[in-house]
Amino acid sequence: MSTNKRQSNNIVLVGPMGAGKTTVGKQMAHFLGKTFVDVDHELESRTGVSINLIFEIEKEAGFRARETAMLAELLSRENCVIATGGGIVVTPENRQILQDTDALVVYLKTEVKHQLKRLKRDKQRPLLQGTGRRERLLNLARIRNPWYEQVSDVSFASGRTSSYGMAKKIVQYLKSPEDRKIQKKR
Description:
By secondary structure, the chain is α/β, with parallel strands linked by helices.
């Protein structure tokens, strides 16, 4: 990590769907005394409709434009743990925002086998509708994992650890003496 001084006290969680960003983020916010916000939940709250309906009506391009505006707004807040949707890195503008932010960007890595287990009963995610989930998740991982790496400052494997354990692990890392002044790698 570089020696640039961090100015934001926000933490942003990125990673694929089913990595645990929302669940881990809520736990982290609790442990750190921060406010938890989820980009997708905020969009649903503001629009009064589901992400699926936004995708259906406005298509992915319309959803991504809303997502970019929400990400920028949430990053302007202070003292937050922000969970992003798995596709946040698809948009070049979002990748740039995440790279340029003073917030710490944490990548929750997970394997497709763990995603399949966690998302087994999920009927809400637009990109998981229909058959062939494993192949779709493998394709998404191939495309998106390099982008998650590109925008993140630190990463943690989220496959075998409970959300509580993962949140504790990240918080312990953040509070460890040698990392007390976490620096952006850019």
